[in-house]
Amino acid sequence: MSEKRKPLLGFMGKLPSGPALGNSGKTHCPLCMGLFQAPRLLPCLHTVCTTCLERLEPFSVVDIRGGDSDASSEGSLFQELKPPCLQPQTGILCPVCDAQVDLPMGGVKALTIDHLAMNDVMLESLRGEGQGLVCDLCSDRDVEKRCQTCKANLCHFCCQAHRRQKKTTYHTMVDLKDLKDCSRIGKAILCPAHPAEELRLFCELCDQPVCRDCAVGAHREHPCDFAGNVIHKHGDSVRELLKGTQPRVEALEGALAQVKDTKSALQQRVQAVAADIRTFSEGYIKAVEEHRDGLLKQLEDIRLQQENSLQLQKAQLEQLLADMRTGVEFTEHLLTSGSDLEILITKGVVVERLTKLNQVEYSARPRVNDKICFSPQEKGRCRGYEVYGAINTKEVDPAKYLHRARERQTASFTLLCKDAAGEGMGRGGDNIQVAVVPKDKKDSPVRTIVQDNKDGTYGVSYTPKEPGIYKVLVCVKEQHVQGSPFTVTVRKKHHPHPGVFHCCTFCSSGGQKTARCACGGTMPGGYLGCGHGHKGHPGRPHWSCCGKFSEKSECTWTGGQSTARSVLRTVAL
């Protein structure tokens, strides 16, 4: 059948150029590097020689996957929902992309034959003056001509015999040199069940090409039609799937570009912050230099952590993009260069692969950002000296919420758990362990209470019995959180003011002569308390109990009236 028809592919998007090792549009096997010999098309749309595939070491799919997962080249980031494997099955790994290939019952030889690759090999052989081509009839001599009617390559002897036979006398014979500019010279595709019959029909019920004998035999009463009559319907479905796949390639390229830009911005920001740190640290003594080195090490750890996260996302996006490109390039080549039967034969593999790729989930946003800055205003201590400077990544520093605690008063803080992308977990159930231990009494830990809020946060509370320095150890799944152990200084119990905050004793007591004040001031006429402008008055408002000038301060008076007066008088002086 040689009916004319318009091209199947109505939309051709220009794909970015790049290496496509193993693409069946090529003519050489990616393993043996020689011309394809009986090429087989894998589910990942890479083509490999049959003998090369048979030399690969097979493995049990159940042993590898545990019977409940489908390992593939996309990696753990791009997981798909697929029914669990219930029966033992043999598999191999694609030598190009390491995708798992589940072998059918017939093994490697039951995989789909890549007729496009066979056509490309024959074209390349023709352009090389016929080197490597042998007669299709005798399989012994070099090819001289080609029968366009039989689609067979013939040597000189078989060509003469072909002309002498009555049945093939009028067949069209063409010299090989006249076929070098042709785009297709493929052989007739024969039926596997009836090798003498060519596949010309397509069974709609079984969704496969069949020959004439199959149509009157195993496919009797099945809806069968010539391949040329059904190619547009099936070709259009593949074309629509391709149209939906091509925009995803562009989206993946955009996501990959964002990751690369973010990585570059991260590196530049790290260098800028390192320069700020070095400039700020100049002129200081050894303690400040040690503090600077500590900041640089922390910055390097942040850079390594975030670059590793970006590198992992970059590798996963590149792998998915390579798989997408392979699928799109192969499908375009199939629809533009393949015959009706070749499209119908390969349709199932192509549709399955493109559908699988379109279902892959991926994050188009970089997992981390370059929001790193240096804060020189924050105070700290190094080797006993007060130093300034800290690195801020907009992460909550637990130490800020741990440093305030008082004896015999319950102190608390909240632990927020985040995933690798920096997002809140949104769920509880993690193994959280918190220990509060006095620095000088490591065998007397303080009792702690951890409350799971079921939203990724955990409330921690403890009550220190004595003032002093404590170590707070926070572990999630038996791993210390960043900064653990933390140092907490527990101060003495807060003492409220028993007196009044006044301008003078005379005003606050209503003129009572016996009222006293811790400031030590007195007034003539037998007044034991202070008054404005008189001896001992501090000249501003103060507490009557301890003499402090701050209204929100802690009271320091602990003795009796007389003791407090004498002591506070000395303090006032």
Helix content: 25-40%
The whole-number mean of residue pLDDT values reads 77
CA-atom Rg in angstroms: 42 Å
Sheet with the most strands, sense and barrel status: 5 strands, mixed
Number of helices: 10
GO cellular component, one term: nucleoplasm
Catalytic activity: S-ubiquitinyl-[E2 ubiquitin-conjugating enzyme]-L-cysteine + [acceptor protein]-L-lysine = [E2 ubiquitin-conjugating enzyme]-L-cysteine + N(6)-ubiquitinyl-[acceptor protein]-L-lysine
Keywords: Coiled coil, Metal-binding, Repeat, Ubl conjugation pathway, Zinc, Zinc-finger
GO molecular function: ubiquitin protein ligase activity; zinc ion binding
Quick rundown:
The chain has 573 residues and is an alpha+beta fold. It is built from 10 helices and 24 strands. The strands form 8 sheets. Strands 15, 17, 20, 21 and 22 form a 5-stranded mixed beta sheet that branches.
Compile the SSE list and pairings.
Blueprint: E1 39-41, E2 47-49, H1 50-55, E3 59-60, H2 61-65, E4 90-93, E5 100-102, E6 112-113, H3 115-127, E7 145-147, E8 152-154, H4 156-164, E9 173-175, E10 201-203, E11 208-210, H5 212-216, E12 224-226, H6 227-281, H7 286-337, H8 340-358, E13 373-382, E14 385-392, E15 404-406, E16 411-416, E17 432-438, E18 448-452, E19 457-462, E20 468-476, E21 479-480, E22 486-491, E23 501-502, H9 505-509, E24 542-543, H10 561-572
Helix pairs in contact: 6-7, 6-8, 7-8
Report on this structure.
Among the domains are: 229-359, no CATH class; 397-489, Immunoglobulin-like, CATH 2.60.40.10. The chain has 573 residues and is of the alpha+beta class. The chain is rod-shaped. It contains 10 helices and 24 strands. Mean pLDDT is 77; it is low at 1-25, 63-86 and 560-573. The chain has helices spanning 50-55, 61-65, 115-127, 156-164, 212-216, 227-281, 286-337, 340-358, 505-509, 561-572, and strands at 39-41, 47-49, 59-60, 90-93, 100-102, 112-113, 145-147, 152-154, 173-175, 201-203, 208-210, 224-226, 373-382, 385-392, 404-406, 411-416, 432-438, 448-452, 457-462, 468-476, 479-480, 486-491, 501-502, 542-543. Helix 7 (286-337) packs antiparallel against helix 8 (340-358). The strands form 8 sheets. Strands 15, 17, 20, 21 and 22 form a 5-stranded mixed sheet that branches. A 3-stranded antiparallel sheet has the order 2-1-6. Strands 3-4-5 form a 3-stranded antiparallel sheet. The relative contact order is 0.08.
